[in-house]
Each structure stands twice: as structure tokens, then as C-alpha cells.
Here is the input.
Amino acid sequence: MDKKKKTGCKLMVGCIVFTMLIFLSPSLYCAENNYYYIQVASFRHKQNAAQFAQKLHPFNLTAVIRGEELPNIGYWYRAYIGPFSAWNEADVKRLELRKKGVFVDTAIIHEMKSLILSNLKERVEPAEKIVAEKRHEPADKVVSAYPENINDEVSSMSQPVHLPESVSQVSSKTSKMNIKKRWGRNVSKRNFALGIKHTYREVQTELRKRKRIESDGATTTTTSVSVESGIKNELPTLMHIDTIRIHYGLTDYLEIFADLGSAYDELSDQEFVFGGGARVNLITISEGRFKGFYTAIQEEYLNGKLEQDYKASNGNRWKKEAEWQEFATKMELGLVHSWFTTYIGGVYYIYREDTERRLLENLPSSLTSYIFQDELEEENNFGIFGGVEIQFTPAVFVNLEGQLYTQKSIFGTIEYHF
Here is the structure.
């Protein structure tokens, strides 16, 4: 090989090596890329932080614990999960962990210029900016984002926790109360829930219009009948409703749902029911004295049929076939506790029913059929309701609710959140 070729090869090799050093250099890489961590807890004592790290093992998570000097607060130990290469990636993981019960309320996403490692001995001065939830703004101090079942005075541990060594710095500001649009009892963003619901309902209806249809086998006569006050409010509708409800969270504070199932009386055949609606969580107080308080509004629609046999007050037996639909607007006030939620509220209720009642016995001798066609609606539009939702596991919820005035109803639901 001649001298020029050797020189060219050396230059080519040198360029390749130089290029690799540039792209693989950690300092340059860190300078051009941000890292994202989820802060899931903060403790005053190092032992409790280490215990918290052990509690994450069943979730296949490893926490980075780092001691930090916080302005006007003192020295605290924060638990981080990460790193993530993008804010969206960290946010998806944050929502996933919240549904699994890793933390109850607020987690903070931190934006870093360098990797966080653990240093529980050396005190570090705060320096970096943070991002709270989805807003690029200073985050509030989180004393503990994990259920407070860890004694903050523990002084020893049964097993040591091995954590990495430290590098980076984070700061936070404090506030007494943090009020945001949040999820209350809603399904969180991009998550599904599947529930099985049983309802017993009694609607106090009012007869608005009635037609009498008589047939002797050859001729059919239809006559409008004046509604007598004696029977106007004596035709309540009683039914059982079994439905499957599918929820989907469009955002953390807005969910939509669909209902499919059947309605029936105790001795009747089941008839198809369908409907749906939306639920908006208006506000949640996530910090301070009223932590856990929320308000929500829900709109729902249900449509179905009902078929039943019954006896009138005079002893005659009738067959009822009805098509009904209902629309309800609910305003809810509630309080979220660690493992259950209690709530009360008011409802505006609209109910419509088109009914055909066929006399089954004691027909006039000249007739082969005797039918009433009725139009009914609810007696009163307003009512009150209240209930409790119990969280048995991070994914399994049971809801019991009762309603008065507009309709007397009680229902129970069991839900699984994916």
C-alpha cells in the first residue's frame, strides 16, 4: 500500500473515532437531552423512605431515594421513579401507577438535565425546575403521595435497601392548598372500567292520556278517554334493571359510558335496555384542610321495554307492555377517603312511558279484546340521592346508591378498572 493510501486510511479511522466520541459522550448527551422522573413520596426520615422503596417491589418498581434540603422545610428524602425520555411517557406511567394504588393523590413529574441517583448521606442544594401534573409550573411540596401507613418514627429496618449513588438536584415550592380539575370518582385518562349493575326502581308516574280500544273480532273501535283523578296517580312502574356499564376516560376529569342490559318485573320476561352518558368532575381539592372534596355533574340516558302481568284494585288481571325512556342530570358532592368515597347530590329526572294494557279476564261478553293505550310521565322532576363507593383493591370498586322522591331506587355496582 503506498504512502497516500495509508494516510487516507488513518484520516478516515480518525474521523470515525471522533464522531463516535461525540455521540457517545455522556456529558454532551446529557446537555442536549432532558430526563423525566415521577416523584411519588417524600419523608422526613431516611428509614421510612427506604421502607417505602421496599413496598414498591410487588409492583416491579425500583425507587431512587435522594435526600434534599428544601427551603423553609428542612432536609427530606424523596422517592423517584424513572428515568423517562419524554414527558408524555412519564405521564402515562404516572396514571398507570395511580390506578394500581402506588400513590393515592398527587404525583409530580420532574424535568432534569442529568440523571438522578441516590445519595442519602450528602446534603444537596436545590437547583432544578419541576413540572406539576400537566402544567409547566412550580410544583407543590408533597409530604407523602403513598397511603400514610408507614410510621414516620421507625428507626431500624429488617433488611437493607440497595439504592444507586447520587448526582442531580431538584427543588419545590410549598403551598397550603392545591385546587385543580381532577378525577374525583371518574375513570382516569385513557383508562377503561367495566361494571355490572343491578337496580331496583319504582317510578311514581302520572297518567296524561288514555285511549280505549275495543274489538268484537270483526270491528275495532278506538275512543279517547278522559283521565279520572282516581286513577291518574295510581299506575306506578316497578322494575329490576341489570346492565353492563363500560367507562372510558377522555381526560382525568371527563369520562363517557355506555349501558347495555335488560329490564324485568319479578315474574316477567327480560326486555332489552340500552343507554349511555357522560360525567364531568368539576373540581377536586387535593391538598389542605378539605383534601379529597370534589364536585361532579353527570348526564345519563336509558331506554328500554317492560312486560308484566298484574292485578288491578278491582281484582281484574291485566297484561302490560311498555316502552319507556328516562333522562337524568345529577349534581354530586363527595369526599374521597383513603379506601372509600361518600357522596350526596340532587337529580333532575324526566321519565316517559307508552303503555298498552290488555284485559286478560272478565271481558264484556260482546268483546274479544279490551285495551288501554296510556301515556305516562313522572310525577315530580326533582329528587335526592346518596351513596358510597368502596375500593377493595387498586382495581376493584363496589358502589351502593339510593334515590328518593322522583323515583325510589337502589342499586349496587361492582367495577373493575383496567
